[in-house]
Amino acid sequence: MKKGVMRPGHVQIRVLDMDEAVKHYTDLMGLIETDRDDQGRVYLKAWTEVDKFSVVLREADEPGCDFMGFKVLDEEVLVQLEKDLVDYGVEVEQVPAEELKDCGRRVRFTVPSGHAFELYADKLYTGKWGLSSVNPEAWPRGLQGMKAVRFDHCLFYGPELAATYDIFVSVLGFDLAEQVLDPEGTRVAQFLTVSMKEHDIAFIHHEEKGKFHHASFHLETWEDVLRAADLITMTDTSIDIGPTRHGLTHGKTIYFFDPSGNRNEVFCGGDYFYPDHKPVTWKTEELGKAIFYHDRTLNERFMTVLT
Amino acid sequence: MAGFQVFNRTTGDDFICQEGQSVLKAMEQRGLKCVPVGCRGGGCGFCKIRVLEGHFECGKMSKRHAPPEAVEKGEVLACRIYPLTDLVIECVPLPEAALAKQTTNR
Ligand code: FES
Ligand SMILES: [Fe+2]
């Protein structure tokens, strides 16, 4: 049941070299740099997003994901969800307003899979990039590279999926859209949504805590995914796999890596979800097909290459 | 011919690496698979090798997978090293990857 969590709002990604990373996320992927702060972090957004930023890059000596943030409806919801998390036994940390520029206070917590998440209600509304909100044109000119449409979701790898599921579903009001079950019926992958999308966040079972598999960005068409693949070759960017289709969610996809080894995805299409939908189940026996629908074989790199 | 000879002692493969090219990229270009290929960005630790002989330059690598103590001993990430001389390398087992494999085969 919905509890007022609206959508993925941001992700903070650690990179080894800021200049290389900014070039990758802007020139190649088409995100727009919107700000920098005195810690040296760089703020980016995709053009259809209405808030000031959705991706924050932080230079560090180890790549990976610091946290992912979800935007909630308003301050009242934030207060309620914070209370619900605490009542559920989740330890929460207060991150003051403006710790990220032009973002309101954030409530941060770590789930049993080892990943940090945040809830927040306010961020500076800057509107879609390059378009008026009155009589807008179809798209803005001057977009770069893949012209990513929006930050869409993340996939994380870690243990304790059941306990993580409980927090997202029971406390935060996410729904289970898709899952992978092993022969004993244990859930080894969970795709969770707070929207009509097939997933706003996903987890795959892995022994080590807190691993980052990918941050994903939406494109409109299969042609755009193909064009993204062309750009990956033109820029000699490290490719993982694709263009292909997922079994899970049926999205059409390509995976590649940023210059620090963090995996990115751009994708289009895929199934939709309404709250009366029952979860779609894939079995581990068909895991190859579940992940890459055309190859139908388990892809070692997909399962083990993480930051 | 320009470039440096890289010899993988574990597998017996050898290949030429051009100046300024990473060892992993040179290997991939030759169609060899004697070092595991992951992110190619110094982030995942998949391509860890030990350099037994020769000199090289290092690009930025994840400290988690290539801490300074290990780099001292020649344990580096093949996607982020650029030979300055001929190299002799060997494969390093991957504890994390092995672990992950166990999990997914469950
Ligand atoms: S392939 Fe990922 S660190 Fe070299
Ligand atoms: Fe994805």
Keywords:
heterodimer, A: 307 residues, alpha/beta, nine-stranded mixed sheet, eight-stranded mixed sheet, 19% helix, B: 106 residues, alpha+beta, five-stranded mixed sheet, two-stranded antiparallel ribbon, 3 helices, 21% helix, globular
Q: Using only CA atoms, what is the Rg of chain B?
A: 13 Å
- Low-pLDDT stretches of chain B are 97-106
Helix/strand class of chain B: alpha+beta
SSE arrangement of chain B, N to C? EEHEEHEEEH
Largest sheet of chain B: 5 strands, mixed
How many separate helices of chain B?
3
Helix content of chain A: 10-25%
N→C terminal distance of chain B: 49 Å
User: Strand arrangement, largest sheet of chain B?
Assistant: 2-1-7-3-5
Percent range of helical residues of chain B: 10-25%
Low-confidence stretches of chain A: none
Report what the structure shows.
The complex is a heterodimer of chains A (307) and B (106). Chain A is of the alpha/beta class and 307 residues long. Helices cover 19% and strands 35% of the residues of chain A. In chain A, the strands form two sheets. A nine-stranded mixed sheet of chain A has the order 14-15-16-13-9-12-11-10-17. An eight-stranded mixed sheet of chain A has the order 2-3-4-1-5-8-7-6, with helices on one face. Chain A is globular and about 50 Å long. Chain A starts with a strand and ends with a helix. With 106 residues, chain B is of the alpha+beta class. Helices cover 21% and strands 27% of the residues of chain B. Chain B is built from three helices and seven strands; from the N terminus they run ββαββαβββα. Chain B has helices at residues 23-29, 68-72, 95-104, and strands at 4-8, 14-17, 48-53, 56-58, 75-77, 81-83, 87-91. In chain B, the strands form two sheets. Chain B has a five-stranded mixed sheet. A two-stranded antiparallel sheet of chain B has the order 4-6. The N and C termini of chain B lie far apart (49 Å). The model of chain B is unreliable at 97-106 (pLDDT under 50). The structure holds FE2/S2 (inorganic) cluster and fe (ii) ion. FE2/S2 (inorganic) cluster (FES) binds next to loops of chain B.
